[in-house]
Write a structure and sequence with these properties.
The structure holds two protein chains of two kinds. Chain A has ten helices and ten strands. Chain A is of the alpha+beta class. Chain A has one domain (about 5-260): Alpha-Beta Plaits (2-Layer Sandwich), CATH 3.30.70. A four-stranded mixed sheet of chain A has the order 8-1-10-9. Chain A has a two-stranded antiparallel sheet with strand order 2-3. Chain A has a two-stranded antiparallel ribbon with strand order 4-5. Chain B has helices spanning about 10-35, 50-65, 65-75, 85-105, 115-120, 125-150, 160-185, 195-225, 230-260, 265-275, 285-300, 305-310, 310-335, 350-385. Classes of the chains: A alpha+beta, B mainly alpha.
C-alpha cells in the first residue's frame, strides 16, 4: 500500500491530483482516474464541495423512481446480483418508514408514509462510528465529508458493520464477480472478503457527474449538493422543509436528510 | 525442559495424535473456507459476527482467569496456590493463542492481517485488543517459563520475573476490559451499550476460567497422578462461587434496566433472547438451558455441603461452564446484532464448516495446553524425586 495511492484517495475529488498518477490506479477501489471512453481523463470538470449532503424527498419518490435509483447505483458500482439475502450487497435500497425510522414508527403514522418505502443508504456521517472502529483506516472520511472505503486495505474484520447504526454496510461473503451479468469498466469489481458501501459516487463526482441515483431521479426526488454553500440546492431544500435524519440521538450526525 | 514433552505414556501419545487429527480436519476445512469465502459460515449481512468472535470473547475470559491463581499467591501469599500458578499461566498462553486464531479465521482477507500493524490506528479498539492480547501472551510465556525454570533449578525467582508477574495482574484485567470495549462503545447496539459489560465479562471469566482449570486438574489427577491440594480446591471453589453470584447479579441488573425503563432498544434484544421476536426464537431454548444450568450450578455451589462434596462440586463446575459458555460463547455476540438496525430479525446458526474450524482451533489450544502441562509435570516429578 503506497502512500501515493492513499493520498490520492483522500484528494480524489481534486482534479489535479489524478494527473500525476498512472491509470494502473484503477486497482484502488475507485475508478477516478480511469480515462473516459473517449480516451481523455475528464478531470477539469470535477465537481467539488466542502461538505456533500443529500436530501431525500420521500413525497416525490414512487415505485418507479426508487427502482431506477437503486438500479442505476447497482449498475454504476458493479453490485453483484446475489439471491441469498444473507450475502446480499446493497448500497442504496428501499426500506419502509418503520425500518428506516424504527424509533418514530407507531400506530398513527399516516397511511401514505406507512405504505410507501423510502430509500436508505450510507449517511456519510460527520461523526462516523465505522471510521472510528476500523483498525486499518481502510474506511475514512474525506475532507468533503464523503466516507469512503479502500477495498485494498480492508482486512474483512467487519468491525465497521457492527459499528454502523444504519445497516449500511455489506460484506462480500462470496466472490461477487461470479454474480455479475455485466461489468462497468468505470468502477472496479471487488474481491470476496471485503466490506463495501455507498460512496456518494466519489468516482462520478471526480468526472463531473452527479451521483448515479440522483441522476436516475429526474424530478428532484434526490437532492445532492454542498452543505457549506448557502445557495446550494440541499440548503434550499433544508430551509424550506422540515427534515429528519436517521437516529439523531446517537450523535453520528448523518448527512442524508429526509423530507417526509 | 522441552524434551519432557517427548516422553509419555501410550495414553499421552494417543491423546496428542487425536488432537493432531482434529487439527488436520480443521485445517482442511479452513482451506475450504479460505477458497470459498466466509459465505460457508452462517454469518450474514445482519449478523456479521458469530461463533468465531464469540469464542474469542469467551476465551479471553479463560485467559484472564489465570490471575485468580496468580493474584492470591503473589499479592496475598496464599501459599497453597504456589504449585498451581504455573498452570494458570500456561492455560492463559493456550487461551490467548486460541483467541488470536479465532480472529484470524474470522477475517475476510487474512493475508492482509498485518495491515493492523502497518497502519496502526489507536482510535480502533481492535488495535488495542491486539496490543493487550499479544502483550499478555508474551508475559505469560516468559513468566511461565521462568517459574518452571526456577523450579527445575530449585532456585529463587529472578527479581525481574517478579516484576513481570506484578505487571501481569492488571494486564489480565485489561485484556477482558478492552475486549468488552470492543462491544460496549458502539452506538446503536443497545444490547452491548452498557457500562457494566466489562465487569460482566470479568465476573463470568473469574467463575468459568478457574472452573475449567479445576476440571482440567481433576482430569490430570486421574491420568497423570497430579496432586491437587484440597486447600487450593477450597479457595478456588469460594472464588468461583462469588464470581458466579456476581455474574448472575450483573445480568439481572441489565434486565432490570431493560424491562423497567421499557425503552424499546434496550428491551428488544432481551426479548429475542428469551421469548423470541418477530416470530423467531432460535436462541430462546439455548438461553433457557443456560439459565437452568446456571441456577442449578449456583445452588450446588452456594450450599456448603454440596460445594465440599467432590462429586456434586464437579457437577457444579461442568454446569457452570456450560451455562456461561452458552451466554458468552453463543448469545452475547449474536444477540447484539438482533434485531438489526432496521428493526428486522435475521437469525444465525453456525454451519458445519464453521464448527469444524472452531473445533480445530480448540484442538490447537488443547495441544499447546497438553504439551505445556506435560513439561510442567515432568519438571515437578523430577524435582520431587531428586
Amino acid at each position: 500500500m503506497d502512500s501515493a495511492r492513499r493520498n490520492f484517495l483522500k484528494i480524489a475529488g481534486l482534479a489535479a491530483a489524478g494527473l500525476t498518477l498512472k491509470p494502473a490506479g484503477n486497482a484502488f477501489g475507485m475508478g477516478v482516474i480511469v480515462p473516459e471512453p473517449d480516451g481523455a481523463a475528464n478531470f477539469d470538470s470535477a465537481i467539488e464541495a466542502k461538505r456533500w449532503a443529500m436530501v431525500v424527498d420521500t413525497r416525490k419518490l414512487n415505485a418507479q423512481t426508487r427502482k431506477a435509483a437503486v438500479a442505476a447505483c447497482r449498475k454504476a458500482h458493479n453490485l453483484p446480483d446475489i439471491k441469498n439475502p444473507k450475502h446480499e450487497i446493497k448500497w442504496i435500497w428501499e426500506a419502509g418508514f418503520k425500518n428506516a425510522f424504527p424509533d418514530l414508527a407507531g400506530p398513527h403514522v399516516p397511511p401514505q408514509v406507512e405504505r410507501e418505502p423510502m430509500l436508505v443508504l450510507c449517511n456519510h456521517c460527520d461523526n462516523p462510528p465505522c471510521v472510528r472502529v476500523c483498525p486499518t483506516k481502510a474506511t475514512f472520511k474525506r475532507k468533503d465529508g464523503i466516507v469512503v472505503m479502500d477495498f485494498h486495505r480492508c482486512i474483512g474484520c467487519r468491525y465497521c458493520m457492527a459499528a454502523c447504526p444504519y445497516g449500511s454496510r455489506s460484506f462480500n461473503y462470496v466472490d461477487p464477480r461470479l454474480h455479475l451479468a455485466q461489468t462497468n469498466v468505470d468502477f472496479p469489481t471487488r474481491t470476496k472478503g471485503v466490506v463495501e458501501k455507498c460512496n456518494f459516487c466519489a468516482e462520478r463526482l471526480a468526472r463531473g457527474q452527479m451521483p448515479a441515483c440522483v441522476e436516475a431521479c429526474r424530478n428532484n426526488e434526490l437532492i445532492f449538493g454542498d452543505l457549506s454553500d448557502p445557495n446550494s440546492s440541499v440548503n434550499q431544500a433544508l430551509r424550506q422543509n422540515f427534515t429528519l435524519v436517521r437516529k439523531p440521538e446517537l450523535g453520528t450526525q448523518p448527512q442524508v436528510y429526509y423530507i417526509i | 525442559m522441552l524434551e519432557k514433552a517427548l516422553h509419555g505414556s501410550k495414553i499421552y501419545w494417543a491423546w496428542v495424535m487425536a488432537l493432531l487429527g482434529v487439527i488436520g480436519i480443521g485445517f482442511f476445512t479452513y482451506l475450504y473456507q479460505y477458497s470459498q469465502g466466509l459465505g460457508v459460515t452462517g454469518l450474514s449481512r445482519d449478523v456479521s459476527w458469530g461463533f468465531y468472535i464469540a469464542q474469542l470473547t469467551y476465551l479471553v475470559g479463560v485467559a484472564a482467569s489465570g490471575v485468580m491463581l496468580v493474584l492470591p499467591y503473589y499479592l496475598h501469599d496464599h501459599k497453597t496456590f504456589g504449585k498451581l500458578t504455573i498452570l494458570g499461566e500456561f492455560m492463559a498462553v493456550s487461551a490467548v493463542l486460541m483467541c488470536m486464531m479465532f480472529v484470524l479465521v474470522d477475517l475476510g482477507q487474512p493475508k492482509r492481517m498485518l495491515n493492523v500493524i502497518l497502519f496502526p490506528t489507536p482510535n480502533s479498539i481492535l488495535f488495542w485488543d491486539m496490543f493487550v492480547l499479544s502483550g499478555y501472551l508474551g508475559l505469560n510465556i516468559v513468566i511461565g517459563w521462568m517459574v518452571l525454570h526456577a523450579e527445575n533449578k530449585r532456585g529463587e525467582l529472578a527479581k525481574w520475573v517478579k516484576i513481570l508477574i506484578y505487571i501481569s495482574i492488571p494486564w489480565a484485567i485489561s485484556i477482558h476490559t478492552v475486549t468488552a470495549f470492543l462491544y460496549s462503545g458502539l452506538p446503536g447496539r443497545h444490547f452491548w451499550l452498557t457500562a457494566i459489560l466489562a465487569p460482566r465479562f470479568l465476573a463470568s471469566a473469574f467463575c468459568a476460567g478457574p472452573a475449567i482449570l479445576l476440571l482440567i486438574m481433576f482430569v490430570m489427577r486421574k491420568v497423570a497422578n497430579f496432586h491437587v491440594p484440597d486447600k487450593a480446591v477450597n479457595t478456588l471453589s469460594v472464588i468461583i462461587t462469588y464470581a458466579m453470584i456476581l455474574n448472575v447479579f450483573f445480568l439481572l441488573l441489565e434486565m432490570f434496566t431493560a424491562f423497567y425503563s421499557n425503552i424499546p432498544g434496550h428491551l428488544h434484544a432481551f426479548e429475542y433472547m428469551f421469548v423470541g421476536s418477530h416470530g423467531k426464537w432460535a436462541m430462546a431454548p439455548w438461553m433457557w438451558t443456560s439459565v437452568l444450568l446456571g441456577v442449578f450450578s449456583l445452588v450446588l455451589l452456594i450450599v456448603p455441603k454440596w460445594r465440599k462434596n467432590p462429586k456434586t462440586f464437579v457437577v457444579a463446575l461442568i454446569t457452570l461452564v456450560a451455562s456461561t459458555w452458552i451466554e458468552k460463547g453463543m448469545a452475547l455476540v449474536v444477540v447484539g446484532f438482533i434485531p438489526n438496525p432496521l428493526d428486522q430479525v435475521t437469525e444465525y446458526t453456525p454451519t458445519l464448516p464453521e464448527l469444524t474450524i472452531s473445533l480445530g482451533v480448540y484442538a490447537v489450544g488443547l495441544l499447546v495446553l497438553t504439551l505445556l502441562f506435560k513439561i510442567a509435570l515432568g519438571v515437578r516429578a523430577e524435582t520431587a524425586n531428586a
